């Protein structure tokens, strides 16, 4: 029997702008109050102010009381001096106008197709098709490869081989079969003629509800240039770049977007005309336009069509050069460049002030610590009298008191998590990380994961 180590950690816990004129003046959808930042003086005093102008030698700050102050660079701390030097007035004004731009709007004008996902028990699911059959998929960044549930693979026309392979999960090892998959499709994004593994995903899991047909793993996310946004409840793909490594991130003329209907049809086009009850789409590659009643569109695309105007379209195109990072940093997100080992993604943080590497895993319903690392970092680890379930069955776990877990400015204090031996049943090898950063913390911080920019973004508000 050939063994293929698959770090598939899908854990199941038992308890657990508009343009104001033809001159191109940008006007935001809503007037936002200016956001003041903390500036620190050279002697350590901190004030809240808004940087409104600068010269080669001086800068001008606007104070909350409406007064302005002009001072030389050396009056500020070295960190704030660097901030002022990098600050660009025109860019700042433009970004302020773009503040209401959603990730969906930004990505769709760059050719991404979006899918609304559902959350069940912290796991995220999207609808798609397996060989033309309606299917449910779980999005799992912690799974190195896409894996099919063997029953679904057989029922939906895949050619399943003998169970002579082995995959490893949190509960141990499980038999698996090489499986010929003609097609997996989500909208216009698809992969075809793949050989994947299939296994009994729900074996030995008490009262398991067979809620999905496959786990879409990290290799699928990477190939599709996926962006996952917990805040908007959406996942985005670039289907036209599946086989293209030389990505042009911002096309010269991002004319077309995807429109979806309630009867599950998808059209790639742009609005040519609209009235109170319908829109006329210019379809990519066709000479004739298509008229669609507004009521036929999905709720999200109805809203897009209702809000659409030629002026709004121009605004969106002006914004196409922005990155996800530009938009999120306007909203006080913190970004982390992740490290990639195989198909897995990792971010560095701290567990009780000790440097710790975390695997980012949307398939883990709750964050989990490696039990040995939890002890080494001073967590209070209880007896191994709990149980976690996943591929391979069950594994013992311990309730663990965690004084602090930090990732940049995101700080989780006095939390109760589970600890488990993450590596005992995963085929051995080096311990590449100390904990799994799961869907519970990602939901709490409205996380955004982008495979194109290779970053994880977290928004943390202290309560």
The helix/strand class is alpha+beta
Helix content: 10-25%
Distance between the termini: 53 Å
How many H/I helices?
10
Q: What Rg do the Cα atoms give? A: 25 Å
Give the overall shape, derived from the CA principal axes: flat
Mean pLDDT: 83
The main sheet comes to: 6 strands, mixed, barrel
Strand sequence of the main sheet, in spatial order?
11-12-18-13-17-16
- Strand fraction equals 35-45%
Topology at a glance:
Blueprint: E1 2-3, E2 12-13, E3 18-19, E4 26-27, E5 37-40, E6 46-54, E7 58-62, E8 68-72, H1 78-86, H2 89-97, H3 103-108, E9 113-116, E10 118-120, E11 123-130, E12 133-139, E13 147-149, H4 150-155, E14 159-160, E15 165-169, E16 172-186, E17 189-199, E18 214-216, H5 218-223, E19 227-229, E20 234-237, E21 257-260, E22 266-274, E23 278-283, E24 289-293, H6 299-307, H7 310-318, H8 324-330, E25 334-337, E26 339-341, E27 344-351, E28 354-360, E29 368-370, H9 371-376, E30 380-381, E31 386-390, E32 393-407, E33 410-420, E34 435-437, H10 439-444, E35 448-450, E36 455-458
Parallel strand pairs: 1-15, 12-18, 13-17, 28-34, 29-33
Antiparallel strand pairs: 2-31, 3-4, 5-6, 6-7, 7-8, 9-20, 10-11, 11-12, 11-16, 13-18, 14-16, 15-16, 16-17, 19-20, 19-35, 21-22, 22-23, 23-24, 25-36, 26-27, 27-28, 27-32, 29-34, 30-32, 31-32, 32-33, 35-36
